[in-house]
Amino acid sequence: MDLKHLRAIVTVAECGSVTRAAHLLHIVQPAVSRQITSLEVELGVKLFDRTRQGMRLTPEGTALVTRARRILTELERARSEIRPARHEVRGIATVGILGSVERLLARDLVAMVAAKYPGIELHLASAYSGHLQQWLDDGDLDMSLLYNLTTTQSVRVLPLLRDKLWAVAPADAGLRPDEPIDLTTVLAHPFVMPDAGQHGLRLLLDEARLQCNVEPSIAALVNTMSLQTLLVEAGLGWTILPAAGVAEEVATGRLSAAPLRSPEIVRTVGLGLPRTGTASPAAEAVAAELLTLIRECVRSGRWASAAVVDDVA
């Protein structure tokens, strides 16, 4: 097994076709087929099912492709960091961003890194905190924003913010950022509930509503924040979300929102970093830019619901 074999199996898996993979790899189709067959003989397993719809990975093939991608990515990182002049920061940095703040952070982070470090290839991944933590554990991310997580055996977490959740309602409900609203009032309306199996905010909400002894009338259970906002915007219920996740919809009058009280619901946002290994210069540079951006968002009021941990009494 060598790098040619790994590139071949990853490319065929992504294309679903030996012919298309050969075109991308700039080699003839029989050569790609021989590399796949050679791998299967060496490992003693079938890596692909050959179907009329194309090449489909077997479970064994999926396991190999997952690891092959990581090997090829690490090799590319090493090449990027070794090639340039010593004073120039180059390389790949992979960053996980919570889906609730991707609109707030992603565009500015890409622009900042491109302006200051043109030699860095920035990879962004957006998901729920649990998925991001798993990718961080697996080595697929250099760093990730996470919430309500303390340092573990595999992840070191730097606390950054305390972020208050807000009530989110249709625009005609008239919620205002300067007028907090009781949780019992929110739960008296039809409620768009985050799915317990998919959304970490559900745990915070369940803990808070036990204090109110109120059982909401659930309009729908959903597994993404985009569905929550879509259904609320359509007038089908109210929900609870981080304010940063709906700032654009509130600013344009598509939704209304207000801070929660009695009780408040607060999540802690931190930056997760692998406990093992040394961060590359590219990852260190991007982490510094990300921290600068987050503090600026809080200072300027763009992340209105958050307070920097250092500023919290």
Task: Provide the fold topology.
Blueprint: H1 3-15, H2 18-25, H3 29-43, E1 48-51, E2 54-57, H4 59-82, E3 91-98, H5 102-116, E4 120-127, H6 129-137, E5 143-147, E6 155-170, E7 181-182, H7 183-187, E8 191-194, H8 201-212, E9 218-222, H9 225-233, E10 239-242, H10 247-251, E11 255-261, E12 266-274, H11 281-300, E13 306-308
Parallel strand pairs: 3-4, 3-5, 7-11, 8-9
Antiparallel strand pairs: 1-2, 5-12, 6-10, 6-11, 6-12, 6-13
Helix pairs in contact: 1-2, 1-3, 1-4, 2-3, 5-11
Poorly predicted runs are none
Rough shape? globular
Structural class: alpha/beta
How far from one another are the termini?
Answer: 57 Å
Q: What is the CATH homologous superfamily assignment of the largest domain?
A: Periplasmic binding protein-like II
Binned, the helix content reads 40-55%
- Radius of gyration over alpha carbons? 23 Å
Proportion of beta-strand residues? 25-35%
- Tell me the CATH architecture of the largest domain: 3-Layer(aba) Sandwich
Biggest sheet, open or closed, and with what strands and sense? 9 strands, mixed
Count of all domains: 3
Number of strands: 13
Number of helices: 11
